[in-house]
Write the structure tokens for this entry.
Amino acid sequence: MTSIQRATSSPATSRTEAPRVDTRPTAAPEQPSQRNALATARNTDAFVAQPLRYDGSKPAPGTDNTQAWIPVDAPVRGNPSNRNAATYNEVLNQFAVGNNPRYTPRGGNTYCNIFVWDATRAMGAEIPHWVDANGNSTGVGKGRELNANATVDWLHQHGERHGWRKVSAEEAQNLANQGHPATAVWKNPGGIGHVAMVRPGEVTSQGPAIAQAGSKNFNNGHVKDSFGNRPVEYWVNDSGKPTGGGQPAPTPTPTPTPTPTPGGSASVPQVDLQRDARGPEVQKLQGALVKLGYMTPEQVATGPGIFGPKTQSAVAKFQTDHGISPNSGIFGPKTRAAMTAELDKLSRPAVPQSTLRRGSEGPEVKQLQDALVRLGHMSAEQVATGPGVFGPKTEAALKAFQSSRGIEVDGVYGPQSRQALTDALGGKPSPGPVTGPTPTPPTGGSDAAKAARINDMLKNSGLRGQGEHILAMSKKYNVPPELALAMFQKEAQWNTTGVAPKNNNPGNLRFAEWERQFGGVPNGGFTRFPSVEQGIEAYFRLMDKGYRQFIDNKDWQGMINKYAPPSDGNDSTTYARQIAQWMETYRAQING
């Protein structure tokens, strides 16, 4: 059998638009922009929201002009006298480079240098697109346009007198974390080069954190995600003054401690925290991030109890994944609430949605047993004698639970017991009635109900409306739907970033001949499918034929070692940990 493997990222390239005849109208001299008066913090976690706030999901007004040679007037501007990570984050996020038509590849052209031009110009440290013979910025059409290679040349020849200097990868990341504009560049001697913005984050095995346009566009990634192993240079403009401002200092007064839910087993800090904070509360935050798969124990070991760039990057990623805007890396009330909820989900047993009785077997029986153990009606030793088997011990425990909740003691797990169990575990009530012998369809365990829950999860993504199809493919190929959802999130943020949505390819599959049966055609190293439904089915078929042994053995690390091998520069250990973590979360959500 031919080995089947996911595509790995190819280097992103960029060039200006194709040469145009000199007949387009010359733009009027640039007028001073209407500056956004965002002089203080940007974190909705810690203070009252301001009118303008961008998280990278959609471009700010006025930043999506597809006439790429014309500058845009971005509403959020950086101030060289007040450099800070929060402002730099929002300056980059306002361009929503992963979803902005201004940077969408078209006509054989890509726009990495345009994004760098826009971002540095908004930061008050312009790397120009139009220059005169002396390398000075000019108006539109009054000089020559710089492509990516020429942009690298400009930095070498003119960067120093404009405040730019060459630094190491680590220094570029450190200075970006202070709010200084920084860029990663590669001059391609044999073709088109590439440039990207270094953004606040951390240096990983994939290099510094970046946002970029190019053959694939993304707002949050790392250098090797696009440059591969090419010889990248880093440049930073640190002529401005780092203030650490743009966000409020954390208050030392703890916020009221929320009432713990019965399922909660891990705690989160009850004080607001940000970069440079130290102490046991930071260590508690790091422990929660490890449990949720956003940090590794090895990362924490480099600075336990110290809120450094790795912790900040992990908090920012958690914020992005949970829709907290902006993703500034500050731990405040909104992040605390979301993190508490996620930790509670991890430790709370799932509530079975099917009717169960003596003689029933399967994973939902095990869910019932785990819940009864949590509530003190069974012991782990009793479950170990027949996990997943509804025998006399489970029946006796269920009757004891029913008696304790004042419902009919019949030893049958039905609608009343389901509602009582949900309430006892602190979860949300199940759909359907709580009395009477027959629930109103769709029942919690029905395909229709599960598909509806998947659709609700995907409603704001590029896979919206695909719940029924994902569930059908899961049954057809015997691949868990939560595995597909987790990998679709990892590969393309549920088909919203990179080339995946353009290719209808949420799993970022590399082209192979067998994919033609689903309408797949090669598109660079990836596969383009005629519809997202066909791209989803191709993924499930790949899992079934190429990864069956890993799925059957629940060997997620082995599966990811093949799907995203370390030899391609992937952090496969973190990838596998995230997949396992997300699968658990999605499984609980699908089952209600």
